[in-house]
Amino acid sequence: MVKTITINQLGNAIAREGKRGKYIFWLGAGTSATAGVPLAEGIVDRLLDREWRELGNVGEPYATLSPGERDQRRAEVRKWAQQTERVPSQLQGEDWGTLYSHCLKNLPGQVDRSIFIDDCLKETGPQLNFAAILMAQLIRAGFVRTVLTTNFDSLVEGALQLLSENAAVRTPNDIGQLRIDPTFPQIAYLHGKEKAYDLRNTDDEVRENIPGFTRFLEPALTSEVLVVVGYRGGDEWPMNRLEQLLTRPGRLAGRALYWVSHEKESEYERLSPALRRVLDLPETRWLPGLDADKFFVELCACQGIGLGIPRDQTFETRLPPSLARRYSEDYKEPDSTRFLRLRGSTGPAFKDAYSRSQGDLARAYSDFHEAYLQARGDRATDYEVHFNYGVGLMVTRRYLPALKKFEFVTGVDPKDVEAPSLKPEALSLKGDLLQKSGRYEEAMGAYRQSASSRESAPCLNNWGVALHNLRRYTEAKEKFEQALELEAAYREAKRNWFAAERKLAGAIEDKEAQKAKLAEIADREREESESDPDFGFTGAVFEERQRR
To answer: Is 203 exposed, middle or buried (CB count within 10 Å of its CB: 0-12, 13-18, 19+)?
Structure first.
């Protein structure tokens, strides 16, 4: 009997292991779909369309067609492929993705296939998705050290680079160099990588041995934990080898295997025979009905993991439009403006440095750095100087070095007479910077320390923002209320309180009760806006979204 579990159960298991990288993630095509990367069926349609046009049929390239035009062209080309027996009759069926290996075999060589795959990936440009960014977050945080993928795209690598992280990369010919307990993150492309020539696409290639893969996978299944996401597990060598190793005597030795699929429990019969056999194993745990983005968002929000999408324009501009909208709606920004104050006798020098820059962040950074060197002089442990420089770095968006400055101030001996006065603010700013990088659990730890020394409305508000970003809306609402108890006119906390209320209302199952609650919230928000013109009003936008 197939055993199913929830994301929270898997998240708790990962959190218990801690940041030791004991979990290996195996990523399939489903993890790249929302980034615009074509699935196997889309590759088949593009290949057949190209062949159809090369035979003299008039038409624009498949990539340039609108969705409606694509549907018409797809139907026409598939009918042509069946009539001309371009695809074997025994392979023709509802799932044209099963023709992937057969169709790629029609391209004359690996160079041509590599160019074709690269063209497919270029259609949507270098976009990211939540799955890739959060996979990179799990790697950077140390929860995951090894990623196996049957995909050709380098989305996870791209996300890691934006997080200032790198990974060792393995392709089919050097997968034997994978390590069970690696010092550095490692990504293995089982079928090869874009812009590479050691690809494995055709029937013969995907069924042949990948050198060193078994040598890595066999002990890994004993000592590590495998989580498979977005992989269909079709008739190909990696899946066949995985099944053989899972069914051998001794197999997982008490370790579990987790399989995340888009198909729901009611769609079990639609799964590949090999996958159904793996799911039937006593050690396997199935998480059905989850697309990869939703899975990674909810997994990273689990207590003990506490990660999310960084609040960074760089990521927002790299997301497809549909995900960018979700990003701007679901992830809130901490309010740091109240804490960005320059302190003490060295404050004026830093303030003058920023004034001279006239908004030019590059010049501001240069002037801040010069002011820092001059102010520091012989006073290597002057916490005020480090604090002010941290503020300057934060203003000029040098978030990582700013974090190091605030960590220096917050890590000092509590008996020091100068540091304690700066410590609560430095801790809160440290929390804000951790939030900006999507490290919400760590951010809450900083806010907790800051509030224990000196409670402030901005700190409690930003603590609530971290909880909100982790989808813990009830706790977030409580923090916003605590902030408002300290400072009743704090607009940002009021706005966030309404946002948490809307999220909680949206979770009400009874649609009539949900509608009534949302209307009540909108009325209260409208009243607030009328009494305070600077408050703003977003409830109407939310109500309109609900109607759509």
So the answer is: middle
CA distances from 47 to 32, 59, 206, 313 (A): 20, 14, 18, 36
Tens of pLDDT, residue by residue over 413-463, are 555 555 567 888 999 999 999 999 999 999 999 999 999 988 999 999 999
Question: CA distances (Å), 90 to each of 51, 86, 236, 421, 490, in order?
Answer: 21, 12, 18, 76, 68
| Tens digits of residue pLDDT in 122-136 | 776 768 999 999 999
pLDDT in tens, 186-201: 999 988 888 776 777 7
Cα 466 from Cα 470, distance rounded (Å): 6
Torsion of CA 54, 58, 62, 67, to 10 degrees: -160
Q: What is the pTM of this model?
A: 0.86
pLDDT tens, position by position, 246-264: 887 666 555 789 999 999 9
**Alpha helix positions (H), 251-346:** 273-279, 292-300, 313-318, 321-330
**For the purposes of burial, counting CB atoms within 10 Å of the CB of 243, is it exposed (0-12), middle (13-18) or buried (19 or more)?**
middle
Write down the residue that tokens 């090999």 correspond to: 274
Could you tell me if 363 and 357 are in contact, meaning their C-beta atoms sit under 8 angstroms apart?
A: yes
CA distance 473 to 485: 18
Name 83's Cβ contacts closer than 8 Å, sequence gap at least 6: none
Structural domains for the chain: 3-33+126-326 (3.40.50.1220), 40-108 (no CATH), 332-448 (1.25.40.10), 455-548 (1.25.40.10)
